[in-house]
Amino acid sequence: MKIAVAGTGYVGLVTGACLAEKGHNVICVDIDENKVKKMKSGISPIYEEGLEEIMRRNYSNGRLDYTTDYSLAYKNADVIFIAVGTPERSDGSANLDYIRKVASEIAESIEKNTLIVIKSTVPIGTNAKIEEFLRKKIKSDIYVELASNPEFLAQGTAVRDTLHASRIVIGVESKWAENIMKEIYKPFDLPMIITNRNSAEMIKYASNDFLALRISYMNDIANLCEIVGANVEDVAEGMSYDDRIGSKFLKAGIGYGGSCFPKDTKALHWLSSQNGYELKTVRAAIEVNEQQKMKLVRKASERVDSFEGLKVAVLGLTFKPGTDDLRESPSIPNIEYLLERGAHVTVYDPVGEENAKKLFGDKVIYAKSIIEAIKDSSMCFIMTEWPEIKNIKPEVFKNEMLEPLVYDGRNCYIPKVMEEAGIEYYSIGR
Ligand SMILES: NC(=O)c1ccc[n+]([C@@H]2O[C@H](COP(=O)([O-])OP(=O)(O)OC[C@H]3O[C@@H](n4cnc5c(N)ncnc54)[C@H](O)[C@@H]3O)[C@@H](O)[C@H]2O)c1
Ligand SMILES: O=c1ccn([C@@H]2O[C@H](COP(=O)(O)OP(=O)(O)O[C@H]3O[C@H](CO)[C@@H](O)[C@H](O)[C@H]3O)[C@@H](O)[C@H]2O)c(=O)[nH]1
Fold it and tell me: Which UniProt keywords are listed (predicted)?
Protein backbone atom coordinates (compact mmCIF):
# COMPACT_ATOMS: atom_id res chain seq x y z
CA MET A 1 0.00 0.00 0.00
CA LYS A 2 1.20 3.54 -0.78
CA ILE A 3 1.19 5.50 2.45
CA ALA A 4 2.05 9.14 3.22
CA VAL A 5 2.73 10.22 6.79
CA ALA A 6 2.33 13.88 7.77
CA GLY A 7 4.77 14.86 10.52
CA THR A 8 8.02 13.09 11.37
CA GLY A 9 8.11 13.49 15.15
CA TYR A 10 8.20 10.63 17.63
CA VAL A 11 4.95 9.20 16.31
CA GLY A 12 5.13 10.01 12.58
CA LEU A 13 8.70 8.91 11.95
CA VAL A 14 8.46 5.72 14.00
CA THR A 15 5.10 4.84 12.40
CA GLY A 16 6.42 5.58 8.89
CA ALA A 17 9.61 3.57 9.41
CA CYS A 18 7.73 0.60 10.93
CA LEU A 19 5.07 0.59 8.19
CA ALA A 20 7.94 0.43 5.63
CA GLU A 21 9.62 -2.32 7.63
CA LYS A 22 6.38 -4.31 7.31
CA GLY A 23 6.38 -3.96 3.51
CA HIS A 24 4.43 -0.78 2.73
CA ASN A 25 5.65 2.02 0.50
CA VAL A 26 5.98 5.05 2.74
CA ILE A 27 6.73 8.71 2.17
CA CYS A 28 7.18 10.84 5.28
CA VAL A 29 6.32 14.53 4.99
CA ASP A 30 7.61 17.30 7.21
CA ILE A 31 7.74 21.09 6.93
CA ASP A 32 11.18 21.13 8.51
CA GLU A 33 13.76 21.01 5.70
CA ASN A 34 16.66 20.29 8.04
CA LYS A 35 14.86 17.27 9.46
CA VAL A 36 14.18 15.95 5.96
CA LYS A 37 17.83 16.42 4.96
CA LYS A 38 19.01 14.62 8.09
CA MET A 39 16.60 11.72 7.60
CA LYS A 40 17.62 11.29 3.97
CA SER A 41 21.22 10.91 5.12
CA GLY A 42 20.15 8.16 7.55
CA ILE A 43 20.17 10.28 10.72
CA SER A 44 17.16 10.29 13.00
CA PRO A 45 16.24 13.73 14.33
CA ILE A 46 15.02 12.07 17.53
CA TYR A 47 16.73 9.71 19.92
CA GLU A 48 14.96 6.34 19.76
CA GLU A 49 16.66 2.99 20.12
CA GLY A 50 16.70 0.92 16.91
CA LEU A 51 15.10 3.62 14.76
CA GLU A 52 18.06 4.60 12.57
CA GLU A 53 18.69 0.98 11.64
CA ILE A 54 15.12 0.59 10.33
CA MET A 55 15.26 4.01 8.63
CA ARG A 56 18.48 3.17 6.78
CA ARG A 57 17.41 -0.34 5.77
CA ASN A 58 14.10 0.82 4.32
CA TYR A 59 15.49 3.99 2.73
CA SER A 60 18.09 1.95 0.84
CA ASN A 61 15.56 -0.71 -0.25
CA GLY A 62 13.35 2.10 -1.59
CA ARG A 63 10.33 1.54 0.66
CA LEU A 64 10.87 4.66 2.79
CA ASP A 65 11.50 8.24 1.70
CA TYR A 66 11.21 11.75 3.12
CA THR A 67 10.07 15.00 1.59
CA THR A 68 8.85 18.53 2.21
CA ASP A 69 6.78 18.34 -0.99
CA TYR A 70 3.44 17.46 0.60
CA SER A 71 1.52 17.95 -2.61
CA LEU A 72 3.31 15.19 -4.48
CA ALA A 73 3.31 12.89 -1.46
CA TYR A 74 -0.44 13.23 -0.75
CA LYS A 75 -1.42 13.05 -4.42
CA ASN A 76 0.20 9.64 -4.87
CA ALA A 77 -0.90 8.09 -1.58
CA ASP A 78 -3.75 5.61 -1.05
CA VAL A 79 -3.73 6.38 2.65
CA ILE A 80 -2.47 9.47 4.51
CA PHE A 81 -1.59 9.22 8.20
CA ILE A 82 -1.67 12.48 10.16
CA ALA A 83 0.86 12.51 13.01
CA VAL A 84 1.48 16.20 13.69
CA GLY A 85 1.48 17.69 17.18
CA THR A 86 -1.66 18.59 19.14
CA PRO A 87 -0.13 20.71 21.91
CA GLU A 88 -1.84 22.32 24.84
CA ARG A 89 -3.46 25.75 24.60
CA SER A 90 -3.23 28.07 27.60
CA ASP A 91 -6.79 27.14 28.64
CA GLY A 92 -5.90 23.42 28.63
CA SER A 93 -7.69 22.56 25.38
CA ALA A 94 -5.92 20.78 22.53
CA ASN A 95 -4.54 23.05 19.81
CA LEU A 96 -5.65 21.58 16.48
CA ASP A 97 -3.99 24.20 14.24
CA TYR A 98 -1.39 21.72 12.92
CA ILE A 99 -4.10 19.16 12.14
CA ARG A 100 -6.18 21.77 10.30
CA LYS A 101 -3.13 22.93 8.33
CA VAL A 102 -2.40 19.37 7.17
CA ALA A 103 -6.09 18.91 6.31
CA SER A 104 -5.96 22.01 4.07
CA GLU A 105 -2.78 20.74 2.42
CA ILE A 106 -4.42 17.38 1.81
CA ALA A 107 -7.52 19.08 0.36
CA GLU A 108 -5.47 21.04 -2.15
CA SER A 109 -3.35 18.01 -3.13
CA ILE A 110 -5.37 14.81 -3.48
CA GLU A 111 -6.75 13.74 -6.85
CA LYS A 112 -8.20 10.30 -6.06
CA ASN A 113 -10.20 8.52 -3.34
CA THR A 114 -8.12 8.58 -0.16
CA LEU A 115 -8.41 7.29 3.38
CA ILE A 116 -7.11 9.81 5.93
CA VAL A 117 -6.02 8.33 9.24
CA ILE A 118 -5.56 10.51 12.31
CA LYS A 119 -2.83 9.08 14.51
CA SER A 120 -2.33 12.25 16.55
CA THR A 121 -4.17 12.42 19.87
CA VAL A 122 -7.27 14.48 19.11
CA PRO A 123 -10.40 15.44 21.07
CA ILE A 124 -13.49 13.33 20.61
CA GLY A 125 -15.30 14.40 17.44
CA THR A 126 -12.22 15.68 15.59
CA ASN A 127 -12.20 12.93 12.93
CA ALA A 128 -15.79 13.75 12.06
CA LYS A 129 -15.07 17.49 11.86
CA ILE A 130 -11.99 17.07 9.66
CA GLU A 131 -13.94 14.74 7.38
CA GLU A 132 -16.69 17.34 7.00
CA PHE A 133 -14.09 20.04 6.28
CA LEU A 134 -12.34 17.93 3.63
CA ARG A 135 -15.55 16.88 1.89
CA LYS A 136 -16.52 20.52 1.52
CA LYS A 137 -13.10 21.43 0.10
CA ILE A 138 -12.33 18.64 -2.38
CA LYS A 139 -13.71 18.05 -5.87
CA SER A 140 -17.05 16.20 -5.90
CA ASP A 141 -15.73 13.26 -7.97
CA ILE A 142 -13.29 12.09 -5.29
CA TYR A 143 -14.10 10.45 -1.98
CA VAL A 144 -12.37 10.92 1.35
CA GLU A 145 -13.08 9.27 4.64
CA LEU A 146 -11.44 9.67 8.04
CA ALA A 147 -10.33 6.84 10.31
CA SER A 148 -9.06 7.17 13.86
CA ASN A 149 -5.98 5.14 14.76
CA PRO A 150 -4.57 6.50 18.03
CA GLU A 151 -1.00 5.74 19.01
CA PHE A 152 0.11 4.21 22.32
CA LEU A 153 3.90 4.13 21.95
CA ALA A 154 6.02 5.49 24.78
CA GLN A 155 9.17 7.49 24.09
CA GLY A 156 12.39 5.58 24.59
CA THR A 157 10.73 2.31 23.52
CA ALA A 158 8.90 3.68 20.49
CA VAL A 159 10.09 1.15 17.90
CA ARG A 160 9.43 -1.87 20.11
CA ASP A 161 6.06 -0.42 21.15
CA THR A 162 5.08 -0.03 17.49
CA LEU A 163 6.26 -3.39 16.19
CA HIS A 164 4.88 -5.24 19.23
CA ALA A 165 2.02 -2.93 20.23
CA SER A 166 -0.35 -4.08 22.96
CA ARG A 167 -3.23 -3.35 20.58
CA ILE A 168 -4.15 -1.55 17.39
CA VAL A 169 -7.20 0.63 17.94
CA ILE A 170 -9.17 1.45 14.82
CA GLY A 171 -12.13 3.79 14.74
CA VAL A 172 -14.08 3.61 11.48
CA GLU A 173 -17.50 4.44 10.10
CA SER A 174 -17.49 2.14 7.03
CA LYS A 175 -16.44 -1.33 5.86
CA TRP A 176 -14.30 0.35 3.20
CA ALA A 177 -12.16 2.11 5.80
CA GLU A 178 -12.15 -0.96 8.07
CA ASN A 179 -10.82 -3.20 5.30
CA ILE A 180 -8.05 -0.79 4.36
CA MET A 181 -6.95 -0.44 8.00
CA LYS A 182 -6.99 -4.23 8.44
CA GLU A 183 -4.84 -4.64 5.33
CA ILE A 184 -2.30 -2.06 6.57
CA TYR A 185 -1.91 -3.77 9.94
CA LYS A 186 -2.16 -7.39 8.73
CA PRO A 187 1.64 -7.89 8.62
CA PHE A 188 1.97 -6.69 12.24
CA ASP A 189 -0.22 -9.56 13.51
CA LEU A 190 -1.37 -7.73 16.65
CA PRO A 191 -4.63 -7.63 18.65
CA MET A 192 -7.01 -5.27 16.90
CA ILE A 193 -9.96 -3.37 18.36
CA ILE A 194 -12.42 -2.06 15.81
CA THR A 195 -14.88 0.54 17.00
CA ASN A 196 -16.39 3.84 15.90
CA ARG A 197 -14.28 6.99 15.62
CA ASN A 198 -15.50 8.73 18.77
CA SER A 199 -14.77 5.65 20.88
CA ALA A 200 -11.30 5.25 19.36
CA GLU A 201 -10.51 8.89 20.13
CA MET A 202 -11.80 8.38 23.68
CA ILE A 203 -9.76 5.17 24.18
CA LYS A 204 -6.59 7.20 23.74
CA TYR A 205 -7.47 9.89 26.30
CA ALA A 206 -9.02 7.42 28.73
CA SER A 207 -5.86 5.27 28.63
CA ASN A 208 -3.41 8.13 29.15
CA ASP A 209 -5.49 9.76 31.85
CA PHE A 210 -5.88 6.45 33.68
CA LEU A 211 -2.10 5.99 33.72
CA ALA A 212 -1.66 9.58 34.92
CA LEU A 213 -4.25 8.90 37.65
CA ARG A 214 -2.30 5.87 38.84
CA ILE A 215 0.88 7.93 39.12
CA SER A 216 -0.84 10.79 40.95
CA TYR A 217 -2.56 8.34 43.26
CA MET A 218 0.79 6.79 44.16
CA ASN A 219 2.34 10.22 44.65
CA ASP A 220 -0.53 11.13 46.97
CA ILE A 221 -0.01 7.87 48.88
CA ALA A 222 3.76 8.54 48.94
CA ASN A 223 3.20 11.90 50.59
CA LEU A 224 1.04 10.24 53.22
CA CYS A 225 3.68 7.49 53.66
CA GLU A 226 6.20 10.17 54.62
CA ILE A 227 3.84 11.55 57.25
CA VAL A 228 2.88 8.21 58.82
CA GLY A 229 6.27 6.50 58.50
CA ALA A 230 5.55 3.99 55.72
CA ASN A 231 7.69 3.20 52.66
CA VAL A 232 5.91 3.78 49.33
CA GLU A 233 8.18 1.35 47.46
CA ASP A 234 7.16 -1.49 49.78
CA VAL A 235 3.55 -0.34 49.58
CA ALA A 236 3.66 -0.39 45.75
CA GLU A 237 5.26 -3.82 45.74
CA GLY A 238 2.67 -5.13 48.14
CA MET A 239 -0.12 -3.76 45.98
CA SER A 240 1.37 -5.11 42.76
CA TYR A 241 0.90 -8.78 43.67
CA ASP A 242 -2.83 -8.29 43.26
CA ASP A 243 -3.23 -8.94 39.56
CA ARG A 244 -6.24 -6.63 39.47
CA ILE A 245 -3.74 -3.86 40.28
CA GLY A 246 -0.54 -5.06 38.58
CA SER A 247 2.96 -3.66 38.96
CA LYS A 248 3.20 -0.98 36.27
CA PHE A 249 2.82 2.78 36.74
CA LEU A 250 2.93 2.59 40.52
CA LYS A 251 6.24 4.41 40.86
CA ALA A 252 6.07 7.47 43.05
CA GLY A 253 8.36 10.34 42.16
CA ILE A 254 8.61 13.97 41.22
CA GLY A 255 5.50 13.77 39.03
CA TYR A 256 4.71 12.81 35.47
CA GLY A 257 5.98 14.87 32.54
CA GLY A 258 6.38 14.40 28.81
CA SER A 259 4.48 15.53 25.78
CA CYS A 260 1.39 13.46 26.56
CA PHE A 261 0.13 12.97 30.13
CA PRO A 262 0.19 16.66 31.13
CA LYS A 263 -1.61 17.85 28.00
CA ASP A 264 -3.95 14.87 27.61
CA THR A 265 -5.24 15.10 31.19
CA LYS A 266 -5.93 18.81 30.71
CA ALA A 267 -7.49 18.36 27.26
CA LEU A 268 -9.97 15.71 28.43
CA HIS A 269 -10.83 17.71 31.54
CA TRP A 270 -11.40 20.78 29.34
CA LEU A 271 -13.54 18.85 26.85
CA SER A 272 -15.57 17.36 29.66
CA SER A 273 -16.18 20.80 31.23
CA GLN A 274 -17.26 22.14 27.86
CA ASN A 275 -19.87 19.40 27.83
CA GLY A 276 -21.15 20.40 31.25
CA TYR A 277 -19.50 17.54 33.10
CA GLU A 278 -16.64 17.79 35.59
CA LEU A 279 -14.13 14.89 35.47
CA LYS A 280 -13.21 15.14 39.16
CA THR A 281 -10.75 12.25 39.14
CA VAL A 282 -8.74 13.72 36.29
CA ARG A 283 -8.74 17.16 37.90
CA ALA A 284 -7.32 15.58 41.07
CA ALA A 285 -4.58 13.85 39.06
CA ILE A 286 -3.59 17.19 37.52
CA GLU A 287 -3.58 18.99 40.86
CA VAL A 288 -1.53 16.32 42.64
CA ASN A 289 1.00 16.38 39.80
CA GLU A 290 1.37 20.17 39.91
CA GLN A 291 2.11 19.98 43.67
CA GLN A 292 4.40 16.99 43.34
CA LYS A 293 6.67 18.55 40.73
CA MET A 294 7.89 21.21 43.17
CA LYS A 295 7.95 19.05 46.29
CA LEU A 296 11.71 18.69 46.64
CA VAL A 297 12.74 22.28 45.96
CA ARG A 298 10.14 23.39 48.50
CA LYS A 299 11.61 20.95 51.01
CA ALA A 300 15.11 22.21 50.21
CA SER A 301 14.05 25.82 50.65
CA GLU A 302 13.11 24.99 54.25
CA ARG A 303 16.53 23.39 54.80
CA VAL A 304 18.73 26.30 53.64
CA ASP A 305 18.46 30.00 54.53
CA SER A 306 18.78 30.99 50.91
CA PHE A 307 19.69 29.55 47.49
CA GLU A 308 21.54 32.79 46.61
CA GLY A 309 25.03 31.97 45.35
CA LEU A 310 24.74 28.24 46.16
CA LYS A 311 26.17 25.80 43.65
CA VAL A 312 23.31 23.38 42.97
CA ALA A 313 23.65 20.27 40.79
CA VAL A 314 20.74 18.87 38.83
CA LEU A 315 21.21 15.32 37.51
CA GLY A 316 18.82 14.28 34.75
CA LEU A 317 16.83 16.73 32.65
CA THR A 318 14.64 14.66 30.35
CA PHE A 319 11.09 13.76 31.44
CA LYS A 320 12.15 10.12 31.71
CA PRO A 321 15.19 8.00 30.79
CA GLY A 322 15.68 6.73 27.23
CA THR A 323 14.66 9.95 25.50
CA ASP A 324 16.25 13.31 24.72
CA ASP A 325 12.87 15.01 25.17
CA LEU A 326 12.42 17.67 27.87
CA ARG A 327 8.80 18.56 27.08
CA GLU A 328 6.94 19.16 30.38
CA SER A 329 9.83 17.63 32.29
CA PRO A 330 9.64 18.32 36.04
CA SER A 331 13.31 19.39 35.80
CA ILE A 332 12.25 22.60 34.00
CA PRO A 333 10.15 24.33 36.72
CA ASN A 334 12.62 23.11 39.33
CA ILE A 335 15.60 24.67 37.56
CA GLU A 336 13.60 27.87 36.99
CA TYR A 337 12.74 27.97 40.71
CA LEU A 338 16.41 27.63 41.67
CA LEU A 339 17.59 30.22 39.14
CA GLU A 340 14.95 32.73 40.28
CA ARG A 341 16.34 32.39 43.80
CA GLY A 342 19.94 33.07 42.76
CA ALA A 343 21.37 29.53 42.73
CA HIS A 344 24.27 28.68 40.39
CA VAL A 345 22.87 25.64 38.64
CA THR A 346 25.04 22.99 36.97
CA VAL A 347 23.15 20.35 35.05
CA TYR A 348 24.01 16.96 33.63
CA ASP A 349 22.02 14.69 31.35
CA PRO A 350 23.48 11.94 29.13
CA VAL A 351 21.42 12.93 26.06
CA GLY A 352 19.22 15.92 26.96
CA GLU A 353 21.86 18.67 26.85
CA GLU A 354 21.09 19.88 23.33
CA ASN A 355 17.37 20.32 24.05
CA ALA A 356 18.13 21.85 27.46
CA LYS A 357 20.26 24.52 25.76
CA LYS A 358 17.21 25.62 23.77
CA LEU A 359 15.42 26.28 27.07
CA PHE A 360 18.08 27.56 29.43
CA GLY A 361 20.76 28.97 27.11
CA ASP A 362 23.68 30.13 29.23
CA LYS A 363 21.65 30.48 32.45
CA VAL A 364 22.97 27.12 33.65
CA ILE A 365 26.31 25.34 33.30
CA TYR A 366 26.27 22.11 31.28
CA ALA A 367 28.56 19.52 32.84
CA LYS A 368 29.99 16.73 30.71
CA SER A 369 29.89 14.21 33.54
CA ILE A 370 28.17 13.49 36.85
CA ILE A 371 31.36 14.23 38.76
CA GLU A 372 31.79 17.60 37.04
CA ALA A 373 28.18 18.48 37.88
CA ILE A 374 28.28 17.63 41.57
CA LYS A 375 31.86 18.76 42.30
CA ASP A 376 31.86 21.36 45.12
CA SER A 377 28.07 21.65 45.02
CA SER A 378 26.05 22.34 48.17
CA MET A 379 23.00 20.44 47.04
CA CYS A 380 22.08 17.89 44.37
CA PHE A 381 18.67 17.14 42.82
CA ILE A 382 17.96 13.90 40.93
CA MET A 383 15.30 14.51 38.29
CA THR A 384 15.64 11.53 35.90
CA GLU A 385 16.53 7.95 36.75
CA TRP A 386 19.08 7.36 33.96
CA PRO A 387 21.03 4.10 34.66
CA GLU A 388 24.33 5.97 35.13
CA ILE A 389 22.66 8.26 37.68
CA LYS A 390 21.11 5.30 39.50
CA ASN A 391 24.56 3.69 39.64
CA ILE A 392 26.31 6.56 41.43
CA LYS A 393 28.01 5.21 44.54
CA PRO A 394 27.21 7.10 47.75
CA GLU A 395 30.95 7.85 48.27
CA VAL A 396 30.90 9.89 45.06
CA PHE A 397 28.36 12.34 46.55
CA LYS A 398 30.26 12.32 49.83
CA ASN A 399 33.66 12.94 48.26
CA GLU A 400 32.78 15.37 45.49
CA MET A 401 30.12 17.61 47.00
CA LEU A 402 30.86 20.52 49.28
CA GLU A 403 28.01 19.33 51.47
CA PRO A 404 26.48 15.91 50.77
CA LEU A 405 22.83 16.97 50.57
CA VAL A 406 20.84 14.96 48.02
CA TYR A 407 17.19 15.38 46.99
CA ASP A 408 16.18 12.38 44.93
CA GLY A 409 12.98 12.80 42.90
CA ARG A 410 13.13 9.30 41.43
CA ASN A 411 13.99 7.11 44.44
CA CYS A 412 17.25 5.93 42.88
CA TYR A 413 19.08 4.98 46.08
CA ILE A 414 18.44 3.08 49.31
CA PRO A 415 17.90 5.60 52.13
CA LYS A 416 19.75 3.50 54.73
CA VAL A 417 22.80 3.10 52.49
CA MET A 418 22.90 6.82 51.77
CA GLU A 419 22.53 7.74 55.43
CA GLU A 420 25.25 5.27 56.47
CA ALA A 421 27.56 6.88 53.93
CA GLY A 422 27.05 10.22 55.68
CA ILE A 423 24.72 11.75 53.14
CA GLU A 424 21.73 13.85 54.10
CA TYR A 425 19.24 12.22 51.79
CA TYR A 426 15.63 12.99 50.93
CA SER A 427 13.53 10.96 48.51
CA ILE A 428 9.82 10.46 47.82
CA GLY A 429 7.49 8.58 50.17
CA ARG A 430 10.21 6.86 52.19
N1 LIG B 1 5.37 11.52 21.59
C2 LIG B 1 4.72 10.44 21.97
O3 LIG B 1 5.23 9.61 22.68
C4 LIG B 1 3.31 10.22 21.51
C5 LIG B 1 2.72 8.95 21.68
C6 LIG B 1 1.40 8.75 21.28
C7 LIG B 1 0.68 9.78 20.70
N8 LIG B 1 1.27 11.00 20.55
C9 LIG B 1 0.50 12.05 19.86
O10 LIG B 1 0.94 12.07 18.49
C11 LIG B 1 0.97 13.41 18.00
C12 LIG B 1 2.36 13.78 17.51
O13 LIG B 1 3.22 13.79 18.62
P14 LIG B 1 4.82 13.82 18.44
O15 LIG B 1 5.39 13.78 19.80
O16 LIG B 1 5.23 12.79 17.45
O17 LIG B 1 4.99 15.28 17.81
P18 LIG B 1 6.32 16.06 17.41
O19 LIG B 1 6.15 17.44 17.87
O20 LIG B 1 7.52 15.28 17.85
O21 LIG B 1 6.32 16.04 15.82
C22 LIG B 1 5.43 16.72 15.01
C23 LIG B 1 6.09 16.91 13.64
O24 LIG B 1 5.12 17.45 12.73
C25 LIG B 1 5.77 18.35 11.86
N26 LIG B 1 4.76 19.19 11.23
C27 LIG B 1 4.09 20.27 11.70
N28 LIG B 1 3.24 20.76 10.77
C29 LIG B 1 3.34 19.95 9.67
C30 LIG B 1 2.71 19.93 8.39
N31 LIG B 1 1.81 20.82 8.06
N32 LIG B 1 3.08 18.95 7.55
C33 LIG B 1 4.00 18.03 7.87
N34 LIG B 1 4.64 18.01 9.05
C35 LIG B 1 4.31 18.96 9.96
C36 LIG B 1 6.74 19.08 12.78
O37 LIG B 1 7.75 19.72 12.05
C38 LIG B 1 7.25 17.90 13.63
O39 LIG B 1 8.38 17.30 13.04
C40 LIG B 1 0.42 14.28 19.13
O41 LIG B 1 -0.96 14.41 18.97
C42 LIG B 1 0.72 13.45 20.38
O43 LIG B 1 -0.16 13.73 21.44
C44 LIG B 1 2.56 11.23 20.91
O1 LIG C 1 5.20 4.61 37.52
C2 LIG C 1 5.47 5.63 36.85
C3 LIG C 1 5.51 5.65 35.44
C4 LIG C 1 5.79 6.84 34.78
N5 LIG C 1 6.04 7.98 35.49
C6 LIG C 1 6.29 9.25 34.77
O7 LIG C 1 5.27 9.44 33.81
C8 LIG C 1 5.77 10.15 32.69
C9 LIG C 1 5.39 9.48 31.39
O10 LIG C 1 6.06 8.25 31.30
P11 LIG C 1 5.76 7.18 30.15
O12 LIG C 1 4.33 6.86 30.15
O13 LIG C 1 6.70 6.07 30.30
O14 LIG C 1 6.20 8.02 28.86
P15 LIG C 1 5.51 8.65 27.57
O16 LIG C 1 6.49 8.49 26.47
O17 LIG C 1 5.02 10.00 27.92
O18 LIG C 1 4.27 7.70 27.20
C19 LIG C 1 2.94 7.95 27.61
O20 LIG C 1 2.32 8.88 26.74
C21 LIG C 1 2.28 8.45 25.35
C22 LIG C 1 1.72 9.61 24.55
O23 LIG C 1 0.35 9.64 24.48
C24 LIG C 1 1.44 7.18 25.27
O25 LIG C 1 1.35 6.77 23.91
C26 LIG C 1 2.08 6.11 26.13
O27 LIG C 1 1.30 4.93 26.08
C28 LIG C 1 2.18 6.62 27.56
O29 LIG C 1 2.85 5.67 28.39
C30 LIG C 1 7.28 10.28 32.91
O31 LIG C 1 7.59 11.57 33.39
C32 LIG C 1 7.59 9.25 33.97
O33 LIG C 1 8.68 9.61 34.78
C34 LIG C 1 6.01 7.96 36.89
O35 LIG C 1 6.23 8.99 37.54
N36 LIG C 1 5.73 6.79 37.54
Answer: NAD, Oxidoreductase
